[in-house]
Amino acid sequence: MHEITDADFREFVKTVQNMALRAYPNPDRVNCPGSEVLRDVARQSRPAAHPAFRSHIVECSPCIAEMLAERTRVQARQQARRRMLLAVAAGVCIVALLSGLWLSHRAAPTARDQLASLRDIPEIPIDLRPYSPTRSDSGQNPKPPIAAPRRRVKLKLFLAPGAPLGSYEIRVLTNDLRTMRSQQAAAVLNEGVTSILVAVDLADLPTGTYMLVLRPARDGEEWQTYPLTLRRSL
Fold it and tell me: Is 124 within 8 Å of 229 (Cβ atoms)?
C-alpha cells in the first residue's frame, strides 16, 4: 500500500469539494436560506453542526459555493488581523526595550562618572594598627576615639599586620548598637601594608561618639570594635 501524502489528501479534498459544487445544481435557489444565514454558517467554527447546513446547504451546490467563499473571506480577515496584532505587539516590545535601554543608559552612572565622583570625596586615613582591637563583647575600657568628619568620605583603614585579605563587613554603630551605616569593601595588600578603602556618607549623622566595627565577611569571624567620633565638617 502506498503512503498517502499531504499533497494527496489535499487533492482528494479538492476533488470532493468540486464534486459537491456541481452535484446539487439549484439555479433557481429554491428553499435557499439566504446570504445572511450562509454568512452565519460560514463564520461558525464547525459549520456542519449548523441546522441550515444539515437541512439544506449540504444538498445545494450554489449554497455550498457561497458559504465556502464567505468562509474564505472570514479566514483571510482573521489572518490579516492576527498579523496586524503580532506586528503591533512586536512594535510595542521593541519600543519598550529601546526605552528601557535609553533610561538605563541615562540613569545608570558610567564607570567614568563613578570614578569622577569618587575623586571629589576626601580620603581620610585611619590607622588602626596602633589600636589593639577589642572584640564586640569585650568589657575592656574605651580607647581614644578615631575622628572623622560629618560628610561623605573615603575611609582608608590601615589594618594590623597579618589581617586577612578579601571582603570585609564594615559598620558604624551607635553606642546602643544601632546600625547607622553598613557596607562591604575589600582588604588589599600593597607594599606590605593591608588596607581597606571604603566610601561612606556620614553627612546626616549627628556629631558625637559611635563605634566603627569590622570583620572579614566569612562565617565564624568576630567583630573588631574601634571608638569613633564624628565632628563637624570644616
Answer: no
167 with 207, same domain: the answer is yes
End-to-end CA distance of the chain: 99
Q: Residue 102: helix, strand or coil by DSSP?
A: helix
| pLDDT per position as a tens digit, 157-193 | 999 888 899 999 999 998 888 899 998 999 999 888 9
Q: Measured at the alpha carbon of residue 64, what is the angle toward residues 67 and 31, in degrees to the nearest 5?
A: 100
Domain that holds residue 66: 6-89
Q: How many C-beta atoms surround the C-beta of residue 219 within 10 A?
A: 5
pLDDT, tens only, 41-77: 888 888 888 888 888 888 888 888 888 888 888 888 8
Residue linked to cell 563637624 = 232
Question: How far is the C-alpha of 223 from the C-alpha of 135, rounded, in Å?
Answer: 6
Buried b (16+ CB within 10 A) or exposed e, 34-67: eeebbebbbbeeebeebebbeebbeebbbbbebb
Q: Is residue 184 part of a domain?
A: yes
Please tell me the pTM assigned to this model: 0.47
Verify that 131 and 207 share a domain, yes or no: yes
